[in-house]
Amino acid sequence: MAPGTEPALTEPLQLLTNAVVLSYFDHFNQANFTAVANLFAVEGQLLPPFESAIVGREAIASYLAAEAKGMKAIPQESTETSLPTGETEVQVIGQVQTPLFSVRVRWQFVLSPDSEIRSARIKLLAALRELLHLKH
């Protein structure tokens, strides 16, 4: 890339710049799960790995308080795409660290035109044998 030029918003491997998604990670890492949930639309969905959808702010806050204590989410790269519906899709790749292990993860956020999270899908990027190893 030539000096002084900026990458396009849809260029892969850019640093995370979406304010709502940045807030998601900031609040998550502070264990402020109510603030995380308030970033979602009223009927927003959190789609964790191996679980059914968690729907609604109250349910998302409760789920995170029970399941995400002690976790840190570390975004490392992202892409952002404007969808024909007026929504924005932000994909983030990074790591989740727990007190016992660290695993690579992809988050896929769909944001409404009003910048609320409609859905956040979380996918583990580890190989099956790595996941099986975590059970021990």
UniProtKB/TrEMBL annotation:
Q: This protein is called what? A: Nuclear transport factor 2 family protein
What domain of life?
Bacteria
Nuclear transport factor domain: which residues?
Answer: 17-115
Q: What is the native source organism of this protein? A: Leptolyngbya sp. NK1-12
